[in-house]
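Entry 14. Structure prediction run on the chain below.
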Amino acid sequence: MMLERQTIPIRDVYAGMYDGPHATPKPSNSGPIFLGIKNVGESGQLDLSNVRHISEKEYPRWIKRVEPKYGDIVFSYEATLNRYALIPKGFRGCLGRRMALIRPDESKICGRFLYYYFYGQEWRNVIAQNTLIGATVDRIPIAKFPDFPITIPSLPTQRKIASILSAYDDLIEKNALRIKILEEMARRIYEEWFVHFRFPGHENVRMVESELGPIPEGWGVATLADSAFLTMGQSPKSEFYNSDGIGMPFHQGVTNFNKHFPTHQTYCTAEGRKAEDGDILMSVRAPVGRINLSPSCMVIGRGLCAMRSKSGKQCLLLHRLLEKFREEDSMGSGSIFKAVTKNDVQGIRFVNSPDELSEHFETTVGPIWNLIKNLTNKNTNLRTTRDLLLPKLISGEIDVFEVSTISEKAVAA
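Output returned:
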């Protein structure tokens, strides 16, 4: 049953709409956040892992027009379009260039519903119809934005839709937090044992000199070629590509290279240049040193290489690489962008621990990474279900009062 809805200009439901400054503040090492397009992910969440700061002294100047507050919806109106995110509690910062903000009037619209509405097809069609194609970047005319139409149901229905979709996002956020904590646990164990050399029994082992500095007696120095099988990616020829989902996933290491599990947008049927499920992926160009795990068998493009431990100690190999590339582009050369060759990767050196300790680390940290993978898979399934529901709920195709709100118990299995 299609629910009754009304079409109105978007200006009728917000308390204010503001665009960001047309300049960039001086960089600061700390202070409030200068919120840019890069900080709004495709999935609709703010990514504040890499931000530009404004000094406290400069901050008042950059919030004269508006200071983002909890519940505001920020969005991009130029260059990278259709990026939307809700301002979370505790955020302190200002709008960056090419960013704008809507402050919903909660007496007229449910703000979280409006946020989800922006990811529906109706709104995407409106944006597409009003996009101005430029020589360098595309944009939407911000002056005409208040007249853009939205088609919405009653306020109680909006709130019900928002509660259903928010339940998925809340679970995704909780799982993401658990993943972050688990990653930090694994990292600290590795750092304690293999960087600070405070491994179990270290009190009875003296330090000796090596080409990489002081190391525990009985340890050695090895290269990646000694420890791992290596596969360099090569982008398939155009005739191997297809858009019907037949064949293997393809990832080239340039886009959607999330922290641990990439998203695959393209498919191909090319053989060779494969990464297996659980292989470690590393970007070998622009930038060098992003580390990832392959969630399935896939074809890898020229921006990636895949690695698998020769001894089966995949967790230890992963952490050695994560430690090596804590800063991206820490190795490589190139006049336009950095890149590394197969020989460069195979020549990476690291301190090699005795087999007994290496095995102890693997049995300690391996279960942590298994849990990380399970939680990541759950989040993938949650996002898929949410993305299937969203257009049907927003369009009124589904009667929301016949849809049960998801619970943690429902997705625990």
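The chain has nine helices and 22 strands.
Filed with the rest of this week's runs.
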